[in-house]
Every structure is written in C-alpha cells, then in structure tokens.
Amino acid sequence: MPDTYRTMRKQSNPSHFVANVVANATHRLCKLLLCVFGIAVGTSSTSAIAEQYPSKPLRMIVPSVAGGILDTVGRTVAAKLAEQMGQPVIVENKPGAGSTIGSEAILKLPADGYTLLAVATGHAINPAVYKKLPYDTVRDFQPVSHTVNLTNVLVVHPSIPAGNVRELIAYGKANPGKLTFGSAGNGQSNHLSGELFKSLTGLDMTHVPYKGSAAALADVLAGNVSMMFVDVLSASSHVKAGKLKAIGITGTQRSAAAPEFQTIAEQGVSGFNGNSWLGVVVRAGTPKEIVARLSAEIAKALKSPEVRERFLAQGVEPVGSTAEQFAAHIEAEMPRWARAVQVSGAKID
After folding, report:
1. Could you give the CA distance from residue 293 to residue 203 in angstroms, rounded to a whole number?
2. What are 248's strand-pairing partners?
3. How far is 193 from 251, CA to CA, in rounded Å?
4. Is 159 helix (H, G, I), strand (E, B) or coil?
5. Does the global pTM surpass 0.85?
6. Contact between 106 and 115 (Cβ < 8 Å)
7. pLDDT bracket for residue 47 (50, 70, 90)
C-alpha cells in the first residue's frame, strides 16, 4: 500500500480522508491534462508555422565562387523556387576551404528553413579529407533534395596529341611527368577523379590545384595545364568552339545528357567512375513539415519543362528526391569517396 494512502488512513476524520483522496486524484488528472495540452499546443504550433511557411524571403548559401556549376544550378533552382513559393530566394556565395566556410555559416543561423545550403559531392568527401571539420556532416545537416547528377568529362588542351583515352595514356607513358591536371582544389571531386585515373592507368601526372573549377579550366584553355575533369555544362561551349577536346566521360555508362561521349571505362580504364552530384540541405532541427515542403517544391522545379530541358542540354541530369532518399544517397557516397581519398593520399589539416 502506498505511504500517502497509509498516512491518510491514519487520519481520525473520515471526511478528511475522502477529501485528500479526491484532491490527490484531481492533482494527478490536472498534471496529465496539462501534459496532453502542451503536446497538442506544440504540435499545433509546428503545424501552423509550416502552413505559414514561407512568410518572408529565403536565402540560399552557395559555398563556391559565382559562375561555377554549383552556383549555376543553385541560381536556377532558387529562381524557380521563388516563382513557386511566392517569396524571393536570395543567393549568397560563400566560397573557400573546400566549401566548409559556406557550410559552417548555415549552422550559425536558425533551423527554420529560411536558409538553404547548396551542396556538391564535396559534402560527402570532406569528412575523409579534412582531419578536423567545424561540423559533423551527418549530425548537423538535414538533407532536403538530391537536385542533379553531373556528367563530368575529361578535357585536354588541343596541343596534347590525343583524341581519345587510349591515345592520352600512350602519350603520357611515352612522356612521363609531362602531363598535368587541374582541379578545384585538394580533395575536390575532380582532383580525386584525376588521382583515380592516374592510379588505374599508371600515368606519371602532376596535380595542379586551384581555388575553384573556373580558375582551373581557364588555365587548361590557356594551355598552362594539360587537362582536367570538369562538368559538361562548363566545358561544352569550349569543346564546340575547338578550344578543348573532350575525350571521355566519367560515369559507368553513357549519359542521356551527352550520349555522344564514350565513357572512360569503356575506353579501357576498367572500374573508373568519377561522376558527381549536387543537392540542397538545411540545418538539422528544421521542422520536418518544412523540409517536406522544400523537397516537394524542389522536385516540382526540376520537373518543369524549361528547367529540365535547359539542364539536359547542358549535360546536367535533373533528379529531385525526398529528404530520405537524399540522406541515403549521401550515406552511400561517403565510403565510396573515402576509398578514393585513401588511394590519392589527399589530406588537409
């Protein structure tokens, strides 16, 4: 028998006993009702916020320089979101340190869905490259949508006497140490693609890192660097103008966006896969109703005929996904690129 009940039984006045029992039961019932009411209010409040979202302009942080592929795709998606959601989406470039500066910036802002972060393959690569990141890639970010897949292409300067991958390998082996390849920086996806290509072919090539793909591509165009792996969107106009030669794409199969290009794997470099992707995340803790709304709006934007046709014409394959699908994709990509980092030996303090 509970102590409180024994105490009440010892009271001399039976009416006091009954009154105490009723008071005790009433107190417990009130506590229960307050708890239930609190949960209901909290749920109602979250739902109300989601229903009113967005009630002010949104912001998209792009952790790369203006003009690059992440910026180009990010601005296209942002413009379509603004049209669909009735609020401006302001794009802000915060480049540097392999996208970690821009990524960290979003963590200093409220988890309310009003600040989006455009991410690329580097989002999954950085945990393997950096000895110490200012954030946890899985814990601190909430995936929203896998926006596009990128068909990357290996381009060489016209001065390199190679029209395909086999000829490039033959030239490189006949001229050890002469080939150079540019990248957006140490540990970036196009750097790791170059290192993987180097490892699988046995070529003696020198890596030349830059602060962004645009700067690297400029030096390949100038003939200061022999070649680089770059997205079709950035390379296509230069290839058409004869300023660069495209000799192979990086995926495991030909791309619907660029079917004229053979894969590097089918040209003799078995197992090569250097394709990359882009997406959108928000800060962890953002209400799930808002995350779901953003996922649906981004998928809608990518399905619109004008966006889809524009991207496919430029070698960019629209995807669009749920938050759960994008989270699973990132989880699968992290170990794949970690193995590439191990092969390359790339590390950043």
Report:
1. 48
2. 154
3. 11
4. coil
5. no
6. yes
7. low
Pair type for strands 89-93 and 58-62: parallel
Cα torsion angle, 318, 322, 323, 329, sign:
negative
User: Residue 111: CB partners within 8 Å, gap ≥ 6?
Assistant: 142, 282, 283, 284, 285, 286
The encoded tokens of residue 7 equal 């105490």
Structure tokens at 286: 């953002």
d(CA 19, CA 7): 13
**89-93, strands of its sheet edge to edge:** 89-93, 58-62, 115-120, 276-283, 141-150, 316-318
Supply 279's token pair: 């997406």
What pLDDT, in 10s, does the model give residues 291-321?
999 999 999 999 999 999 988 887 788 999 9
334: tokens are 């992290």
Whole-angstrom distance, CA of residue 342 vs CA of residue 349: 15
For 205-215, how does the pLDDT look when each residue is reduced to its tens digit (9 = 90+)? 999 999 888 89
Q: Residue 324: what are its φ and ψ, rounded to 5°?
A: -65, -40
Helices (H) and strands (E) in the chain, counts: 12, 11
Residue with token string 């942002």: 78
